[in-house]
Design goal:
This protein has a 9-stranded mixed β-sheet. A 7-stranded mixed β-sheet has the order 2-3-4-1-5-7-6. It contains 4 helices and 16 strands. The chain is of the alpha/beta class and about 280 residues long. Strand 6 and strand 7 form a beta hairpin. It has 2 domains: about 110 residues, 2,3-Dihydroxybiphenyl 1,2-Dioxygenase, domain 1 (Roll), CATH 3.10.180.10; about 130 residues, 2,3-Dihydroxybiphenyl 1,2-Dioxygenase, domain 1, CATH 3.10.180.10. It binds fe (ii) ion. The site of fe (ii) ion has 5 residues, from strand 8 and strand 12.
């Protein structure tokens, strides 16, 4: 029997990020993000931690090879797979060294690879500072189509929508796959690409400690500190050596399964209640 809640509850487990400079990126994620590198193959590095894991592979900088979501358990994973096959979604063979063999992948309307699976028993060392990998955000020029795919086909729930008052057109959508406000989001933009990914720390004091840690490593905060309207989370943003935007966040809202979406007027406030916003469109 197919689980009516589909993807719920699943969490973003790891990302596989492409780069042309494996050694510089590995050093940065080791020194700045506190992860422990292991070379798994010629072009594959695993950066492990107790709360966050990342794979680096050779490829076009600024692109994701895949985003990997962890299902609740084996039965849940099988139910999602059965549902997607019944929906005639093409499932891809794509594997991750961090997931068991039962994992599978599919491609969203923008061509993003999403991997679903169950983590192997990983014993990463404790990181310098807390912050579990929590959400990934994509820019898209077909926001409506993506939101329909993630909700109708996969069962993501909409938490917040940002909408233009004048046109009625949606400019951003935040979607949840468990009780956390969003694990994936989409922003309207001229073209599809990775927008940013976020690590959720435990509290506001962690953001202070991250700020001091970035300063000690001469990593500039490029946006924030601020508080997002959508999600109500505190945030700072930095960039890695490839220019990927990385967010440290805290106090992200929690929503129940049945909570109805909120609608925000397009403008700075949904993105930053405290001040200047990074407007994608
Ligand atoms: Fe974010």
């Amino acid at each position: 029997m197919v689980n009516k809640k589909l993807i719920w509850p699943s969490t973003l487990h790891h990302l596989c990020l492409a780069t042309r400079n494996l050694s510089a990126m590995t050093r940065w994620y080791q020194n700045v993000m506190g992860l422990s590198p292991q070379i798994l193959a010629d072009n594959l590095v695993w950066l492990s931690g107790s709360q966050r894991n990342m794979l680096l592979t050779r490829g076009t900088p600024g692109t994701l090879r895949f985003a990997a979501f962890s299902a609740h358990d084996d039965k849940h994973l099988k139910n999602i797979k059965a549902h997607l096959i019944a929906q005639k979604l093409h499932l891809k063979k794509l594997s991750s060294p961090l997931f068991k063999n039962s994992c599978f992948a599919f491609v969203d309307p923008d061509g993003n690879n999403i991997l679903l699976g169950l983590p192997k028993s990983l014993r990463g060392k404790r990181e310098i500072l807390p912050g579990r990998l929590q959400h990934v955000v994509f820019a898209t020029n077909q926001l409506k189509r993506n939101v329909a795919f993630y909700t109708d086909t996969l069962g993501f729930k909409v938490s917040d929508i940002v909408r233009e008052d004048t046109t009625g057109e949606d400019t951003a959508c935040f979607l949840r796959s468990d009780k956390m406000h969003h694990s994936i989001a989409f922003f309207r933009a001229p073209k599809a690409k990775l927008d940013h990914f976020a690590n959720e720390a435990d509290c506001w004091n962690d953001i202070r400690d991250w700020g001091d840690h970035f300063a000690a490593n001469k990593v500039e905060i490029v946006w924030g500190a601020g508080r997002h309207g959508a999600g109500n989370n505190l945030f700072i943003f930095v960039r890695d050596p490839d220019g990927n935007s990385l967010e440290i966040s805290a106090e992200l809202e929690m929503f129940s399964y049945n909570q109805q979406p909120r609608i925000w007027s397009h403008g700075p406030r949904p993105l930053n209640l405290w001040g200047e916003a990074w407007m994608r469109s």
